[in-house]
Amino acid sequence: MPALTQLVVADDRVTWERLGFAVAPDGICRLGAVAVRLAGAGAARGILSWSLEGDPGAIDGLAAAADEPPPGQPVAHPNGARGLDHVVVATPDVARTFAALAAAGLELRRVREAGSAERPLRQGFYRIGEALLEVVGPPEPAGDGPAAFWGLVVVVDDLDALAARLGPHLGRPRAAVQAGRRIATLRRPAGSSVALAFMTPRNS
Asked: What are the C-alpha distances in Å from 48 to residues 8, 27, 39, 114, 145?
């Protein structure tokens, strides 16, 4: 199945370095096997595109990156980041996005009902190499708009140390949906245009 190799993000390197990420001079931040290409802050925001092995092209509005990621190895990050846990995609039509991902060669591993009685949500999970892809949307179609990248969850060695490092820019660590793990969300004043969260490793 196609593995994620690159994400293109509309942030600048200074912002990510302030968050404790190591960024190469070419603007590449390596998180495990994934190259996060920092395209610079501008009119666009968030995750702009991705690269999957085999280049399946755009998938239900999720743009494919124009360039392949440069070769490189994982690096050590001052904030303790060790890789991506998952990429989150939002869609108004879960069934349509599931079908588009299946046509691109991705296998739906699990479906979870979430949200609340007032705002039910359906989540679908895919393995895309080292990371997971989480697709989330209403159980029934709520429009014909495209799917869109929403955010990233990064695995860090020590969430409490990161919370001390980032101070008020990081929300309070709390229990994650995954048993035995904790998560904390980056707050908007931290400067990143991407919705970012940090999570403890599995089995920790």
From this structure: 5, 15, 9, 26, 16
- The DSSP secondary structure of 78-139, one letter per residue, reads TT-EEEEEEEEEE-S-HHHHHHHHHHTTPPEEEEEEEE-SSSEEEEEEEEETTEEEEEEE-S
Number of domains in the chain: 1
Q: What is the pLDDT along the chain (204 residues), one digit of tens a residue?
A: 899 999 999 999 999 999 999 999 999 999 999 999 999 988 689 999 999 999 889 999 999 998 888 888 889 999 999 999 999 999 999 999 999 999 999 999 999 999 898 999 999 999 999 999 999 999 999 999 999 999 999 999 999 999 999 999 999 999 998 889 999 999 999 999 999 999 999 875
Q: Quick one: which of 173, 167, 131 has its CA closest to 152?
A: 131
Expressed as residue numbers, the domain containing 37 is: 4-199
Kindly state whether residue 204 falls inside one of the protein's structural domains.
Answer: no
Are β-strands 182-185 and 131-137 bridged in parallel, bridged antiparallel, or unpaired? unpaired
CATH number, residue 41: 3.10.180.10
Nearest CA to 97 out of 66, 141, 51, 48 is that of 141
